Amino acid sequence: MQARDLTGPAIAFVVIVAVVVGGAAVMPLVTGGDTPEVTNLAERQTDLDAVRVDPAEESGEISMDSDASSKTILVDRAHGNQLSEEKLSTLTATLVENGHEVRFVTQEQARGGAWNQSLRNADALLVANPGQPYTPEQLAGVREFNEAGGRVVLLSDPASSSGASAVTSLLGLSVQQPASGGPGLSSSLGVAARSGYLFNMHEYQHNFESVYATSGSGSLSQGVDRVVFHDARAVTSDRGQTALSAIERTRLSTTRRADTYAVAAQSGDAAIVGDTDFLAPTNAYVADNEAFVGNLADFLVSGQKTSNAPSPPSPAQGESAPSAPSRPVPTA
Amino acid sequence: MKRKPSAASAKALFVVALAAAVLVSAVLAPVAYDYGSSAQSDGTVSVITISGTVSATTVDGISEDLREARTNESVKAVVLKVDSGGGAVAPSERLYLEVLRTAEQMPVVASVQGTGASGAYYGMLPADEIFVLSSTQIGSVGVIGSGGSVPYPDSVIRTGPDKAQPTTDQRERTVESLKRQFVGRVMEHRGENITLSREEVAYARTYLGPEAVQNGYADRIGALPTAIDHAAELAGMENYDVARQEPPSSLGLIFLASQTDNGTKIYKQSAQTNGLVPVTEPLMVDEIAHHDPGVTANASA
């Protein structure tokens, strides 16, 4: 075969390839690129101001106004009390810095007559989230202690077991029950634990469970405008005064009803707060929490307790409690 | 004598031509049929499935389907076939933006099957209309995430106190911000129809189909064919084709049972969301940015 015979096909090959490849390259230029216009939808759909959540401002110092000195505050650690060292430290540090003594009662130190002995040597009692019931003797001791002017502060979270209700009912304070619970349940232990938490979907600090409470009356609310409670419990006081009430449109989780819910109440020498989170170091300085913590410390040391209360057992009775095994209170 | 061979070759040629004609017809007939039917059709309704947990991987696939629908000139409308209880936050927002981009170009109709909650509801918000069934669960406009992270041992070196360990307060602010974004977009897109207040929406309740139609979470009761037909109608098509885009089967899920205070809950371990996800509850999980998957696993708990 001669080279001349291949020339024709070769030219045809080159021309065809050139036309096809060249055409493919030119076609987009002719038809124009079809890159769509890209709108920044994410930016358009985001309202930066609406989604910005500012940190809560923390300010102030926890200070005490009381000029009382060297009072002894007893902290109940004998009834399965659920309160972290972190939270407790906010209050104990304040008390100790102001020259007061904080003592802890362990389970061993609360057996039999030892509980009343501890109370006799103390000026105030702090009970937080008791998980175990009190014996009738222990309750009688607390009542006598309180009637003698001994200050009692009860802190109660929604989740805590209602060992608290035994103490509160004695002192004229109580943890609020759901309205649907019906009569008679105030004396029942199991029901109180179902009382639920407070929430506010309208105005809150960062989370619907962090409710604001404004001041009412009594020494606990002095200098307080607004306090933030997290996962708080509604409390009532039948003969005392409401120290702090959750703001309008606050609801109870179990009933979903909006009402005026007290979160801190005061009844003579006893006080109850339906929360412990306000004591956490991260919460203690937001809003007016620091003022409330100071007021609580002041409340603990401002009692005028008569000495020797609860009274020691008469010699005839002896310290009989150890020999007669104490039983938990069945109903309260 | 000369005619004979020529007659034979003509006959052979005739047979070859016949065979070739049959072959060519067999190849071209379906093309011609398609052409004929597409000439009658005004366009295509693309049915895109959103099912299972909304994760980065599933949204990648759905985004591809939506992009295909936007660029394919024959696709005139999109129907989202939804059956999902949500998933991670960022993929849910991505899904929302992709659906929004599509809805700005053509009618988009959502057809919720069993569940269209949380992140899945977020994704379908830009749809022109939402169809539900009487048994559909829809809503759950909210975010869930862990409140903090596990403290690090001293053996781990970090460069700052907040590195991979946000405080509870920071987590609350993050989750609150994500909630506001979600609720805000619900109010924006469902605004004219919704009878609930922003506050009521933020309760994050899940509604049953009929109630959802009444309160404006959804528009109408109707099954998938109705939704497809309605999408075609919105696109002005009388005769239309339907193209179904099914997601790749999601294998590799390990089901775990874990004991909680309320009893046994079923969680699924998903490689896609990189964590444990409760199966039964509508979710919009916000995970902590973290390099250790062992710790992020608590994000959905």
Keywords:
heterodimer, A: 332 residues, alpha/beta, Rossmann fold, nine-stranded mixed beta sheet, two-stranded antiparallel ribbon, 9 helices, 13 strands, disordered C terminus, B: 301 residues, 2-enoyl-CoA Hydratase, Chain A, domain 1, eight-stranded mixed beta sheet, three-stranded parallel beta sheet, 41% helix, elongated, S49 family peptidase (chain B), protease (chain B), S49_SppA_C (chain B), serine-type peptidase activity (chain B)
Question: Would you kindly provide a written description of the structure presented here, covering whatever features stand out?
Answer:
The complex is a heterodimer of chains A (332) and B (301). With 332 residues, chain A is α/β, with parallel strands linked by helices. Chain A has a domain at 72-301: Rossmann fold (3-Layer(aba) Sandwich), CATH 3.40.50. Helices cover 29% and strands 17% of the residues of chain A. Chain A has helices spanning 3-31, 41-44, 48-51, 85-97, 113-120, 136-147, 163-170, 189-192, 289-301, and strands at residues 72-76, 101-105, 124-128, 151-155, 173-175, 198-199, 210-215, 226-230, 235-237, 241-246, 251-252, 262-267, 270-273. In chain A, strands 2-1-3-4-13-12-10-7-8 form a 9-stranded mixed beta sheet, sandwiched between helices. Chain A has a two-stranded antiparallel ribbon with strand order 5-9. In chain A, strands 6-11 form a two-stranded antiparallel ribbon. The longest helix of chain A is centred in the N-terminal third of the chain and has 29 residues, at 3-31. The model of chain A is unreliable at 177-194 and 318-332 (pLDDT under 50). Chain B is α/β, with parallel strands linked by helices and 301 residues long. Chain B has a domain at 42-250: Alpha-Beta Complex (2-enoyl-CoA Hydratase, Chain A, domain 1). Chain B has 9 helices and 14 strands. Chain B has helices at residues 3-40, 56-71, 89-103, 119-124, 168-190, 198-201, 209-215, 224-234, 293-296; strands at residues 43-51, 75-84, 86-88, 108-117, 129-132, 137-139, 144-145, 206-208, 220-221, 240-245, 254-260, 263-270, 275-278, 283-286. In chain B, strands 1, 2, 4, 5, 6, 8, 9 and 10 form an 8-stranded mixed beta sheet that branches. A 3-stranded parallel beta sheet of chain B has the order 3-14-7. Residues 250-274 and 290-301 of chain B have low confidence and may be disordered. The interface between A and B is medium-sized, with 20 and 25 residues. Chain A: This is GldG family protein. Chain A: It comes from Halobellus rarus. Chain A: Keywords: Membrane, Transmembrane, Transmembrane helix. Chain A: Residues 303-332 are annotated as: Disordered. Chain A: The chain crosses the membrane at residues 12-30.
